[in-house]
Amino acid sequence: MDNKTLKYIRTGLVLVIALISLVFFVQILTNGGETEADQASLSSAINGLFSVTYVVLIIALILTVLAWLTELISHPKKLVQFLIAAGLFIVVILIAKYVLASSDPVNYGKLHIDGSTSNWVDTGLYTFYILGAIALLLMFLSPVLSMIGIGGGNASEEEYLEEESSEEE
What we know:
Mean pLDDT: 83
Radius of gyration: 26 Å
Structural class: mainly alpha
Order of helices and strands: HHHEEHH
Helix content: over 70%
Low-confidence stretches: none
Number of helices: 5
Number of domains: 2
Shape: flat
Distance between the termini: 24 Å
Largest sheet: 2 strands, antiparallel
Oligomer: single chain
């Protein structure tokens, strides 16, 4: 399909979703909610609006993942960079879970948190701390290394365009 056809399909889909949402929204606004029938109608309208929201969210997620995958597949260098970054992220999570996190049950008054939940909460917190520390370190280290001339820094726009043109050929 050409871009013009895709544009019309996309615009039509947006209009249909907007009209369905508008119908549910008007139902919610015009409903007084005084009687049980009004409350049931209001509940139905709200549930319908949530259903539309879920469908739109699922469609957006699917399209985002498909666009991301096609971008990665069409540029092998980016795929390798992504796999390295994902592997390092998984290593950080594994270190946080198996080295730093504890699985001790916790009691806060009437609230009891079992060992597994405590372990996952600790894992999330320690992962956040590790990634935050790495980000801060790199923020402060990057300019220093650039001044010294050690850091490679980012590729210039010309180098990036040269890579793109060489990949297309």
